[in-house]
Amino acid sequence: MLQYWNGLEDDEDIMLKHGILLMTYDQLIDAVQTAGKEVLGKVKILILDECHALFSDTFITDIKLLRFWLREVIYGGHKTVIGLSATTGIIDYCENEWSVPINRLNTKPVIGYQAKQMICTDFDTIPYLITANKLLGKTIIMCPSVKLCRTLEAHIPNSTVVISPHNDQFNAEMSRIRDYIAQYEELPACYYDDVGVAHELDVLITTSTFREGFNLRETSGVRNVVSCMTDELHVTQFVGRCRYNIDKLVVADTFVHSDNFKRNPYIYASQQRFKAYMANKECAAWFQAISHLVAHDAYGTKKFVLGSDDVRFINYINSHWLVPKGTSGETAKKFRIWRDQDKQAIVNMAAECRLFPICKSKVTFVKVMTMLNNTFGYEIEQGRAMIEGRKHTYRLIVSFDEDEMCYVPAFKTICD
Questions:
Q1: 353 SS3 class
Q2: Beta carbons of 411 and 307 less than 8 angstroms apart
Q3: Buried (b) or exposed (e) across 139-152, using 16+ Cβ within 10 A?
Q4: Do the beta carbons of residue 242 and residue 222 sit within 8 Å?
Q5: What would the pLDDT profile of 233-273 be if each residue is shown by its tens digit?
Q6: Beta strand pairing status for 159-162 and 222-227?
Q7: Using the 8-state DSSP alphabet, how is residue 242 labeled?
Q8: pLDDT at residue number 415
């Protein structure tokens, strides 16, 4: 069985010869519904991989029926049931509701890989982390909803969204990307927009459809994992897609409007613990649940968020003036800032966002460019070129090379 599981043996006849049967959860549910008490009658050992799905994957039709059947099987004592999971928190949370005794074989999950650094932030700060080069290399992001995926996509250059095939917005390009990842265990080099133009793919934004079911190799170049869902289950499963040590694990406090109407008790409890940890490192209950995923303790976490005005200005710059990575020289020319009206528009936005503690009349274009470079960490090119028949000095806010950039106090710090 171990040889089969580790890919050393792919002949199912070998499994059958040893009396081992493979089933998916939906197949097992169907068997319970059709065969009743006689289902798997001769089976003595039942191994449930990713057994947290009994409680987390409520979208599986009749998953509650499977829980009821397993309770009868366990209390009947005719089979030994073994569950495998790296996310035991939701099982602990639901154990009393299930009313089934659970005997732990391991007190802690066995983890092969870790993140070198954890960053705790909020949803609105994510675009800044990427565009200001705080997250070097490729990044995958998991959001609670398609709407939030689209929000990030609008503010992050070289990014695209992939969602569930069961969603009405799923398209052929998303299918191509999913198939590529499944086959090669890495992101494709580019994605195609609605008119068929190729763009470099640095950031893949997904819903929880990518929480499980695929793996990434270190050669994929994905070095950062961002989870906009703060519970142990989603964080652990999503970062577990990378079968190697990553550089950054980012967990972002995210407001989901539907939570006000359909609140999941397990996820809500985790959200409250995360907020407490963001406010005070001593409130480490949330961190302890996922501490095995990172290579430092609770005090090593970087925690910060941009103020709302900072976010507004950063998103304006990213959407209008930041040159996307991989942009050709000719295409980059349209991002040159040389017209007086463009300079004034940037100054007006900086003043409107209250980034300077001085009156608007004293805010100059040079001061704004200096702040973008020194405070927010953007790289600003300056040059002179013949534009529309005259020589002009221009500024260009360019994408970053992967040189080391330090964390700078551009944000409202929660803790040092």
A1: coil
A2: yes
A3: bbbbbbbbebbebb
A4: yes
A5: 899 999 999 999 999 999 999 988 765 556 678 888 889 99
A6: unpaired
A7: B
A8: 42
Question: Per-residue pLDDT tens for 149-206?
Answer: 999 999 999 999 999 998 999 999 999 999 999 999 999 999 999 899 999 999 999 9
Query: What pTM did the predictor assign?
Result: 0.76
List of residues 6+ apart from 319 with CB closer than 8 A: 154, 155
Distance CA 27, CA 29 (A): 5
- 348: pLDDT strictly greater than 80: yes
Question: 226 near 152, Cβ under 8 Å?
Answer: no
SS3 59: coil
What the block records as the tokens of 157 is 């250059």
Structure tokens belonging to residue 267:
């996820």
**Where would I find the beta strands (DSSP E) of 111-227?**
115-122, 138-142, 159-162, 190-192, 198-200, 203-206, 222-227
Partners of residue 84 on adjacent β-strands:
49
Residue with tokens 């005719």: 78
